[in-house]
Amino acid sequence: MERISSAPSISLGYPPTESSAHLAPSFSDSATSTLSFKSLLEDPVNPIRPVYTPTRTEITPVTLSPIPITPVREFQPYLHEISQEYARYSKQKRASLRRYLEKHGKLEGSMKESSINGSLLRRSSVSTILRPASESSYPNSNSETITYDIDDNVNPSSSLVDNFSISSVPSVFFQSDFNLDDPQIFDVVSEHIDITQTSDAPNSNRNLLLNNSMLQEKISWYLDTVELHLLQEIENASDSFPMIIDNLKQLKKETRDNVEETKHLLEKLTEVNVMCDRHMDAISSEELACHQLTQLKKVVQTLEDIYSEHKKVSEDVKDQRFLEAINGINSIVTQLKKKSTELNVDLLSLPSVKSLREEHKVLYHTVSQSVVQQFSKFLTSDMHKFSTILDSNELKDIYLSKNRLIPSVTKSLPSAMEFDADFLHEVDVCIDCLTLTDSLQAALTLYKTAVFEAFENLAQQYFTDGVEMRSVRKSSDLRRSLSAASLSSLSDSSRRSSSAANPFQSMSITEFAEMLTNIYFSSLECLRRIRSQIKVLIDILSKKDTKQYHLSVILNDLMATSSDVVTQQVTTINNLRFRVLDTYPPNNVIYLFSLHIIFHNELESLCGITQSSFIPTIMRQLLDWFKNFQRYSTQKLASSFERELWEAIPVEPSCQDLANRVFECSGNTPVEWTRLLSPEAEKEDENHRVHHVKVSEDCTATVSFGKQSLHIVRSSVTLLETLDDYGKLLAHFSRLAPEFQTGMLDMFRTLNSRVYQLILGAGTVRSSGLSKVLGKHIALASQTIALFQLSLNSMCRYLSRVTGTRLTNETNKLDQDFTVHHLQIHDKFVSLMRERVAISCSQIASLSWDIDSPHGYIIDLSKSLIKLYKVLHRYSQRDCVEVIPDVIRMFEDRLQLELTDIARNPSKWPGVRIDLSYFYDMMASKCGYAGDRTLLEKFERTPEQQEAA
Questions:
Q1: What 3-state DSSP class applies to 251?
Q2: Burial of 205: CB neighbours in 10 Å, binned 0-12, 13-18, 19+
Q3: What is the per-residue pLDDT across 158-172, written as a single tens digit (0 to 9) for each?
Q4: Does residue 95 sit in the same domain as residue 160?
Q5: Nearest Cα to 784, choosing from 877, 733, 844, 710?
Q6: Domain check: are 775 and 835 in the same one?
Q7: Distance between CA atoms of 333 and 364, rounded to whole angstroms?
Q8: Based on the structure, what is the number of domains in the chain?
Q9: Where do the record's region annotations for Disordered lie?
Q10: Is position 337 within any domain?
Q11: Under the phi-then-psi rule, with left for phi > 0, alpha for psi from -120 to 50, and beta for the rest, what region is 929?
Q12: Rounded to the nearest 5°, which phi and psi values hold at 129?
């Protein structure tokens, strides 16, 4: 295409546009004269370099082919298919446009105020000759179809062809992969598929298109058509360009003014910004100051609350509300940490708070120490309070009744497991405080120490009270020294000094027993309470804090160790008292050592088996005392029988009770032996001797020993008392059985020898102070030996029953000795009467037989026999039954020997018969003899009968 002139020409026969129709005539003339087609292609704002553009006259005229108009309804099926995608696209497009307008709102405002014609703003930047005058509307995003505002029945211009159906458009244009870059699609669209591809060629030959002249000509024609259409479009828009250029100039001017004004505004704005920055800095500073002031107020308020709570904590500590104090301290620490986080201020680093924390540490330590002390004092106080519910006498009666040493009592021991609610609450609070202060271990250790000290003080206090009971009349200095003295120091001093320095020597047995009773039973009550306290503590620890439950093992040995402390104290006391223990009567020893054993048994029941030397020491002391008692009793009995006057004494009921107990012990242990009697006075021996010389209406002549009745002498009562003491000792202390058996046999052996020597020996008159030995002496000696034998058998059977031991050969031998000695006493009676009959019969040779009355010899013999009978019948009926017949037979034999020759003389026979008749009559009337008159019958028979006999 050749180059043509660029003179403007707009006479193409096209109708004028809407914009050119409204322009002023003057403006149109000037624009026509000044503008050219070339200027339309230049940059209207910045025409830096010219661009060559051909004029209309330079373009070869081409006949435009009409473009068919397709009605919108033809596109409805297609638009219906893409309605949803198009609706989303339209919605996004409108949103983008709205954001763009909001972003450039100022520019649009300035454009609206300019003199640009509004119609230019409504004109689209892209237009075609086929676009109608009215704008098409966007489809509604909620509708399923797309509609336009144009009318399908608009009559086209005369240059347009008739409507045709869209179905005549090749379907390739509606494919989703439509792309002219694709050679095959291009071949189909260009309708030259037969040129590029033969029937037998699988692929198109693109070189054929380059050599096809028809195709080249058609493409040129297409390009010319496109160019003409572009020129036509430009021509349609050319009428508006002058107005646009003028508006652009005006816009440039206004823009320069606006730029200047904007520059001034920017300078002012800069100043305003600087002032704003300063004001903002000031505001920030003020806000910061206000914030800091608010923070400071909050900090001050927090500190005020903290100090107020700290004051309350101090008051709680002063008032011993330790748990509230500990919780208050912990609450203060928690508040400080919480407020530090909330206020973003390290309150813990403040000097006042540091000082407060130091005070808290002091209070915490004070609370810890106070709670530890209070915990120990509270439990020990409860222990002492429980031990004083009952007094010592009531406790003694209950424990003795429990061990069947006295009759049953109505009262019982208070329950050690009963704790009131206040006690449990106090213990619970203390454990909470100890757990929070990590001082539970220290508290339990101190509690153990306090318990040990309490038991030491308990024994020491009762010991001091017992000493002061005897020292009340002494000077105050001595009493103070005794109160301050400890048991160990007193024990050491008593070993170094004489026995008179021992304060126990001045204590009576009643006072000493009362002291032991207080120590023993108060200690047992304290131990019972401690065991219950330990159970309560372990239960609370197991429920409250399992982490510190292991600390309860500290209390495992508390009971055993406490019992050891008590036993050490009482062992020391008993060792001190044992120096004067030999003077105690058996009842007192039984009472004291029964207390020891009861205390030890209760200790084992409460605390288990202990390793203390208490019971071995007690039993060793008891054995030593028993040996001394055995020796003393044997010597006392031997001396008593040695000085015995052998006079029968009346038997009082108390003596009969002694005999009954000794006799009954072989079958059943007498109740009196198992019962515990209170300590007796030291003048017990004198009181016992009073009833020996006192005769009352209740006294009897003999003592009943089972079915036998025996006359007793003064020493026999002492024997029964000694055996009664032996029985009590064995009933209470079965461990003494071997020593008991040995001592008892030694005692009976000594007594048997002593009685045998005194009664039957030659020194009787000198040792006893008797002028001569009479029949009653021998009869009472026989009764005494019978008492020995019966008592020995009964006591040996009692020993065998209680201890399960068999009778030894020594016992049988001693019993046989008693039998032999009894037979010897019988022989002694016969021997004495033989001497009397020898003296009396010496008169027979000088007698005259012609008198009618009994002779003197037979009268003397009858009197001697009657006297013997009376003595034996009164003092020993057993011997009377055994000895009188023997004496009568001895008399008959001697008389037969002396009177046989005389009786053969008929002149003398009547006198012999009178003597013998008198003898037998006196025996029958005075002695109750009912036997045959053997001698008289012999002398009355004839000589033949006598020879036959």
A1: helix
A2: exposed
A3: 444 455 667 777 778
A4: yes
A5: 710
A6: no
A7: 12
A8: 5
A9: 1-25
A10: yes
A11: beta
A12: -70, -15
